[in-house]
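Following the same procedure, backbone shapes were mapped to integers, yielding the entry below.
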Amino acid sequence: MTAPVSETALAHEDPLFASLPGDIDVSFEFFPPKSEAMAQTLRNSVEALAPLGPRFVSVTYGAGGSTRERTHAEVVRIQNEAGIPAAAHLTCVAATRDEVDDVARHYWEAGVRHIVALRGDPPTGETRYSQHPGGYANAADLIGGLRRIADFEISVAAYPEVHPDSPHAEADLANLKAKFDAGATRAITQYIFDPECFFRFREQAEAAGLGGEIVPGIMPVMSFAAVQRMSGLCGTAIPEWMAGLFEGLDERPEARQLVSATIAAELCRRLYAGGVRQFHFYTLNRAELSYAICHMLGLRPKGLQ
């Protein structure tokens, strides 16, 4: 493992970001649109990010699997029309094993070879996850089912700050190990704002015997209030200093974008200094911030490198 570089030494040796060679791999996450206008925004974002040559782009489910059909439609469209490897989120929620298996087979038949296998959030109105009658118990169980269907590439979720349903970090790591043991290809973390949090988690995962790839999740902040709400649900810690940086920017979206891109790019630079070369961006269906961050990390459209 490459040790993190001293921030002071890095700042003195080169201007920030000036020497980064773009030797990174990226992936982007989108959510299925609810209207034709939102669908056009998604298509524009995919088109804008495609020249960066992402390893894959993924499309999420809504809570409780509520957007299953729209997720399927967008994944297949991206796979067939945008020419980018597309990954479909698939959960255990609100479906039997046979129903989930049928969805997976349809993806394979449509040429989709990558699944993001998740336990999933409880359906609307429920506060705790419970196994659907006749359904998969959890993500590791789902991965086993997918492996019986076809040779999918399978990504899973990881939680550097511990999943809200886990009793402690050791149980959370054991759950992640079970997912790798069942056949997961890589783990993508919940979004983080502290690079040291990721480095600690990576070390803990290695010590626990997890040999799979772990990719940090990066979410450029579109709305600080929204991030506060989401972080309260998923357990991501927000550094105290972030509130001060976004203060007074609610009515200044352009300035807010500049601040957001700077924060996320600096997070990525520190992760890069610690040896990270794969990044997963939660785009919220907007390309500009993710594109700018990738540019600052040295990534250029494939035809211009």
In short: Strands lie at 25-30, 56-59, 86-91, 114-118, 153-158, 186-191, 213-218, 278-282. The chain has one domain: 7-298. The CA atoms of residues 64 and 125 lie 10 Å apart. The first strand starts at residue 25 and ends at 30.
